[in-house]
Design brief:
Elements: E1 4-9, H1 18-30, E2 35-40, H2 52-71, E3 75-80, E4 101-103, E5 109-114, H3 119-133, E6 139-142, H4 161-171, H5 177-184, H6 192-219, E7 224-228, H7 232-236, H8 242-250, E8 257-259, H9 270-288, E9 293-294, E10 297-299, H10 310-318, E11 327-331, H11 346-362, E12 370-371, E13 373-377, H12 381-384, H13 402-409, E14 414-418, E15 429-432, H14 442-450, E16 453-457, H15 458-466, E17 475-481, E18 490-492, E19 497-498, E20 501-502, E21 505-507, E22 515-520, E23 526-528, E24 531-533, E25 539-542, E26 545-547, E27 551-554, H16 570-581, E28 588-589, E29 595-600, E30 605-610, E31 619-622, E32 631-638, E33 641-648, E34 650-652, E35 655-658, E36 667-671
Parallel strand pairs: 1-2, 1-11, 2-3, 6-7, 7-8, 8-9, 10-11, 13-14, 13-15, 15-16, 16-27
Antiparallel strand pairs: 4-5, 12-29, 17-22, 18-21, 18-24, 19-20, 23-26, 24-25, 26-27, 28-31, 29-30, 30-36, 31-35, 32-33, 32-36, 34-35
């Protein structure tokens, strides 16, 4: 089994040269590239939607290179850079093509971006993909502009006259665009308008994918259609049905193929990348499931080692193992036709790590069969969210990713678990944030809370209160307190010690959400672990607590700008570890912050990835359950070599000690 390197490459049909072609072929051989995905009409060379004749110019330029790549055992894929179009860039749709453009929720009309339900656009995009298929590519990609949001400079689409007629048919009444949008974003409970909008957005994308799939496979039955994705919370805002969308895209006999987004187009601090990796890449991979073929995207924009170092690039490629990636899409060079730049040494870097990523793939992570805290997410949450202000479309975004990034940074073993109304969980450790519980009935909520060990945030507690289910947590009274109001200043864990600090304090003032003050019924089984204090040390009320010996509450919501940033401290990490230890053993790494832990559910394979610049002298793993062996084989990369070293596992007080180091930005695999 080979980890697939797909190089995304732009040639300019007008200025391409034989010398550039030869540099590409040399790079492919030296960098051990398996597949080249040629851009069509991309980025700086994009000049609006192309006619059939304009498209053929690109295909004619690519075809000779396809033949030469085949001679050296490398396949060819195609990456048309537009479906709807990413953004308006001064062009207008060619009248000869003639489809309608979209209108956003403020009534502004795009110049060059298609209405996704326009029949003429559907005919156009289907015909273009059939034309691309004539080259018989290995994979034919749909770009991530195939979405209803993030089409600058406009906002959420589409509210054109045609869409309004579709919405009004479902409403069985006539509403203007302004009336419909107001009700779509109406504060409080979900409206019929919201359901109609989400249903239509969901349906039209699936229908379009199906039309494209049929057209492509009629011409090239062997080609796999593949889909690029963006942010899963924003995809919820367009009603994305991950399974049915990708089934429509794949067609009979073909796999679901996806490019999850890797959230670092420029180099960022690895610990920040680690948080975003959980929130976006891991959640997307979990929605797609382990049967999907995943080829995450590595992009270095504006390109060159000035945008991203070789070390960080290697780290991004290798850590795709944490979501079961079978390869990677490499957008390493610009999209203006400059071609390969050998002075950046990407070929040497890729060749160096290829043996290691191939080895990691031999025991591929099964994303649906992991051991650890289950972070619940739901693709349908935007249908049920209650809006506070009704002023911004972002209020429809689910807040379900917070536990994933926090627990991942705290080195807990986690599994992101997509749920449906039919989901039943018993005797699991689960983490719930945002308004996910609104997707369940009261009976289902009670079953979920009473029969599992549960971590809840303030928004999920608020849902229980709205549903009159406060008794599940023995809540007598609850009151929200907004941050920076001279009320709460810090949280203090009275009577506890973390990092040898007694009664440690954590900010409730900066980069934090609002505080939900909870008072509990008398004589209830509630153990309070921390309290809120004013700047004058006045005890204001309870914060973190263990309820009925199996429910942990973190009664805070999400800051609009900073999310849960205030929670990323080892004081909170240690507090959570201690709280969980009193209830049920869980897997986590001891004193190894920002090291990610993945554990297969049988305990036989584990992955550790150091998303920090710190070196750890040994691995210390707090065990949820005994490992199947008293020794471990450690697979790691040393230079361009893969090493396998056996080491004993010493277990003391529930902590497995493996006397092996973990370097900054290093990933290792453990086989027990």
């Amino acid at each position: 089994m080979t980890f697939t390197y797909t190089l995304r490459y732009m040639l300019d049909p007008r200025t391409n040269t034989p010398a550039k072609d030869q540099k590409l072929l040399n790079f492919v051989k030296k960098g051990q590239i398996d597949d080249v995905a040629f851009f069509i009409n991309g980025e700086e060379l994009n000049h609006s939607h192309l006619t059939a004749a304009e498209t053929q110019v690109w295909l004619d330029a690519i075809k000779p290179l396809k033949h030469r790549l085949k001679q050296i055992g490398v396949s060819t894929s195609l990456n048309p850079w537009t479906t709807i179009m990413h953004s308006d860039r001064g062009y207008h749709v060619n009248p000869a093509i003639g489809f309608k453009t979209f209108v956003d929720l403020e009534g502004r009309e795009s110049q060059d971006m298609a209405c996704p339900a326009d029949p003429q656009w559907r005919k156009y995009i289907t015909a273009r993909y059939a034309q691309y298929a004539s080259l018989h590519p290995r994979r034919l990609w749909l770009e991530d502009d195939f979405r209803h949001y993030n089409h600058t400079p406009l906002k959420l689409m589409c509210f054109c006259d045609y869409h309004m007629s579709l919405y009004n048919q479902k409403l069985a009444k006539k509403e203007t665009r302004t009336e419909f949008v107001q009700k779509l974003l109406q504060a409080g409970e979900p409206t019929l308008e919201r359901q109609v909008y989400l249903d239509q957005a969901r349906r039209e994308m699936i229908e379009t994918e199906h039309l494209i799939e049929q057209a492509v496979h009629q011409i090239s039955p062997e080609t796999d259609l593949a889909q690029m994705t963006s942010y899963p919370d924003w995809h919820a805002l367009e009603g994305r049905d991950w399974n049915n969308l990708f089934k429509a895209q794949a067609g009979p006999g073909h796999p679901k193929v996806a490019r999850p987004h890797l959230p670092a187009y420029n180099e960022v601090a690895p610990l920040k990348y680690g948080r975003d990796f959980e929130e976006y890449t891991n959640i997307t991979a979990s929605f797609l499931g382990e049967q999907a073929e995943l080829y995450p995207e590595l992009e270095s924009y504006m390109y060159s080692p000035l945008a991203k170092s070789l070390t960080f690039t290697k780290f991004q490629v290798i850590t795709t193992a944490l979501v079961g990636g079978q390869g990677i899409l490499l957008n390493l060079f610009d999209m203006m036709g400059n071609g390969i730049n050998n002075s950046w040494h990407y070929a040497e870097m890729l060749a160096e790590i290829k043996p290691f990523v191939n080895q990691l793939l031999q025991s591929r992570l099964s994303i649906e069969h992991l051991r650890g805290i289950k972070v619940l997410v739901d693709q349908d949450s935007s249908y049920q969210i209650h809006i506070k202000q009704g002023k911004d479309v972002e209020e429809l975004l689910p807040h379900e990713k917070n536990w994933a990034s926090l627990l991942g940074a705290f080195s807990f073993a986690i599994e992101v678990l997509p749920v449906t109304p039919k989901t039943r969980l018993h005797d699991q450790v689960i983490a719930i944030s945002g308004q996910l519980l609104r997707n369940f009935t009261n009976d289902q909520i009670s079953d979920l809370i009473q029969n599992n060990m549960v971590l809840l945030d303030g928004e999920s507690i608020n849902v229980l209160l709205d549903r009159k289910l406060g008794d599940l947590l023995h809540i007598k009274q609850a009151k929200w307190h907004k941050y920076r109001t001279a009320y709460q200043a810090f949280e203090q864990a009275d009577g506890h010690t973390v990092d040898n600090v007694e009664n440690p304090r954590i900010t409730m003032l900066q980069h934090t959400g609002n505080y939900l003050q909870l008072d509990y019924q008398e004589n209830s089984d509630v153990s309070v672990w921390s309290r809120a204090y004013s700047s004058l040390d006045e005890n204001l009320g309870n914060v973190m607590a263990i309820i009925d010996q199996h429910i942990i509450v973190l009664p805070m919501d999400q800051d609009p700008k900073h999310g849960w940033e205030s929670q990323f401290t080892t004081y909170k990490q240690g507090l959570l570890q201690q709280m969980l230890d009193t209830i049920q053993p869980v897997d986590y790494l001891v004193e190894m912050p920002n090291v990610k832990l993945r554990v297969q559910d049988n305990g036989k394979v584990a992955w550790l990835a150091n998303f920090s610049l710190d070196n750890y002298e040994q691995v210390r793993w707090h065990l949820a359950e005994a490992l199947p062996s008293s020794k471990v084989t450690i697979i790691r990369k040393k230079g361009g070599q893969v090493t396998r070293e056996e080491a004993p596992i010493i277990v003391k007080d529930g902590i497995a000690i493996i006397d092996q180091p973990l370097a900054p930005l290093e990933t290792i695999q453990l086989l027990c």
